[in-house]
Amino acid sequence: MTAILGISAFYHDSAAALVVDGEIVAAAQEERFTRVKHDHVLPQRAMEYCLAEAGLRPEDLDLVGFYDKPFLKFDRLLETYLAVAPAGFRSFLQAMPLWLRQKLHLPREMRRGLDRIAKNGVPRPGSEKHRGYRKRFVFTEHHEAHAASAFFPSPFEEAAVLTLDGVGEWATAAYGTGRGNRLELTHELRFPHSLGLLYSAFTYYCGFRVNSGEYKLMGLAPYGEPRFAEAILEHLVDVREDGSFHLDQTYFNYCQGLTMTSPKLHRLFGGPPRQPESPLGQREMDLAASIQLVTEEIVLKVVRHVHRETGLSDLCLAGGVALNCVANGRILREGPFQRLWVQPAAGDAGGALGVALFTWYQLLDNPRQPPPQGEGRTPEDLQAPHDDQRGSLLGPAFDDQAIEAFLASTGAHYRSLPDERELCHQAAQLLAEDKVLGWFQGRMEFGPRALGNRSILGNPRQPEMQSVMNRKIKFRESFRPFAPVVLAERASEYFGLEPGQESPYML
To answer: Could you give phi then psi for residue 388, rounded to 5 degrees?
Structure first.
């Protein structure tokens, strides 16, 4: 048995993932345990869960991997601060203590976390007490981890691989190919030119939180008109035919400051950034529509270039930009690739899974056999997405006894419906009455999308349901979208998918 634990941490969306003999056994984000949105800390509870799911202790692990190369990232930070000095001094003073105290000592930090798990566990008879993990740590580059998370669980024997995000060490985008158990990234775009940071700059300018509010910006875009798109392309971004681009840094502040945008950008778009939680105006809606359109056009240029260069018919995507499902829809409809597979945890959380899979396949050179496709699939295969992500249902589950004990401990009013048909009938009746349900079943989803096991359900035929659920249940902006659910065989009627085309991960 070979057990590999992957870890992403210390920036945002920290997570842990466990791969045993090539099988994804468990994966979870730390925020699901701490209830701190986008939690960045060492994923102590997620690591503990992954080991418990497999019945392993830290000393049973063969390798532990991290999704970044910290010294390479530190090199980028120092070079950037030197390039903009003295402008970035405040940012430098804020960043360096954390790097010197923690981020340059990741083996020590991860070993401490694993030792805490070993100390809290029950030692096996005859074993050394609290032995912990004393073996090797593996570090991949950030975009290698993203690419591995995209290709290795995918249903493809070979595919083009594209990663797009804010920034890893130096790379902000990369592409290459995956074949069998090998992944090769051949080209990359480098910091400070970044599609993810461009989108995040407008997220900040529209008054939302960076690395959190990008979903809001995408959800706001349909309410506006892209009247600023031409100004963005004329002043901020110089886009080439292959999708590579140059950002005019005089409009941005992320290299040298503690904000994303500069006064020059504020003057171009008619005022300072919107204050968080203040009313949204038409300007913000039009800005969201504009940067969304620019992002889609850049992504399409990149995708067409990758297709020309690789000559392959299938594409795998990861990185935070790959969570932009509107852009992904345009790739399917207008792009040259026949099939698209997006890592469900495409952001930094998925890096934990990527480094574990990269270690198993690429470093240890184990064979890879994609799941059967088409006629080779069994009836059981047809009931779940045909990939190795296992529906992305990789988190903890709770049996009826545990659920009932929790409800009793909180004094909740509840009743048990042991008959599944009665349960479904009751749920359907409540939905028809425009009630809102919390639906909880099976294992928790890995990634930001609610895929049916931890979901809020409402009647989509009720026009007011979206705003009701946003305001009264989610306590968030009323424009935020929800995903409608239909039977798989009816999907092409509602979503414009080709017959047989799947989108099981809401991406």
So the answer is: -95, 10
SS (H, E, C) 233-266: HHHHEEECCCCCEEECHHHECCCCCCCCECHHHH
Residue pair 46/28 in contact by the 8 Å Cβ criterion: yes
Q: Give the count of alpha carbons within 13 A of 54, CB side only.
A: 26
How many angstroms separate the CA atoms of 435 and 433, rounded? 6
**Alpha-carbon gap, residue 62 to 70, rounded angstroms:** 22
Say how far apart CA 363 and CA 361 lie, in whole Å: 6
Mean pLDDT calculated for residue range 355-367 = 97
Check pLDDT > 50 for residue 379.
no
Tell whether pTM > 0.85. yes
Q: Cβ distance 477 to 277 under 8 Å?
A: no
- Extract the runs of DSSP E, i.e. beta strands, from 59-114: 63-66
pLDDT at residue 476, as a whole number: 81
DSSP structure string for 261-291: B-HHHHHHTTSSPPPTTSPP-HHHHHHHHHH
**Sign of the alpha-carbon dihedral angle for 147, 149, 152, 153:** negative
pLDDT tens, position by position, 432-469: 999 999 999 999 999 999 999 999 999 989 888 988 89
List for the chain the helix, strand, coil content (%; round to 5). Answer: 45, 15, 40
Tokens of 276: 């968080």
Could you give the angle at the alpha carbon of 281 between the alpha carbons of 275 and 284, nearest 5°?
A: 75
Whether pLDDT at 126 is above 70 = no
Of the candidates 401, 429, 430, the one whose C-alpha atom is nearest the C-alpha of residue 416 is 401
